[in-house]
Amino acid sequence: MSRRAEHLWVVDRVEGSIAVLIRDGDERTEDVAVRALPAGSREGSVLRVPELDGRPDWTAAVPDEDARRARLREAEEVLERLRRRDPGGDIEL
User: Fold this and answer.
1) What are the boundaries of each domain within the chain?
2) In degrees rounded to 5, what are phi and psi of residue 90?
3) pTM: predicted TM-score of the whole model, two decimal places
4) Which residues contact residue 70 at a Cβ distance below 8 angstroms, ignoring those fewer than 6 apart?
C-alpha cells in the first residue's frame, strides 16, 4: 500500500538548468531540472508538491502564491524587528 502526501517546497536557488529546492518542515533538499518545474518557477517560488512514498512528483507541482507572500511578509517582519534593535553606529571589537 502506498502513502500519498503533499509538501511545500521552496526554490532556494537556480544553478544553470538545475533548481535546488528545500522541503518545508525537515529542510530536505533536492536538485531538480528547471524544466521539470512549473513554468515561471524561480528563486523564492513556493511549490505545493504531491509525494508518493516520499518521492516528489514534480510533474504535478503547482505554485502556491499565498504561501510565498506569507513567507515574504514573515521575513520582512523579522527584518523590521532586527532593525529596531540595531543601535546604529560602528561596531567596535
Assistant:
1) 4-85
2) -80, 155
3) 0.80
4) none
pLDDT, one tens digit per residue, over 48-83 is 999 988 799 999 999 999 999 999 999 999 999 998
* Cβ-contact 36, 59 below 8 angstroms: yes
Per-residue H/E/C for the chain: CCCEEEEEEEEEEEECCEEEEEECCCCCEEEEEHHHCCCCCCCCCEEEEEEECCEECHHHCEECHHHHHHHHHHHHHHHHHHHHHCCCCCCCC
Q: Which residues pair with 66 in a beta bridge?
A: none
What is the distance between the alpha carbons of residues 1 and 20, in angstroms, rounded to a whole number? 30
Kindly report the CATH class assigned to 4-85.
Answer: mainly beta
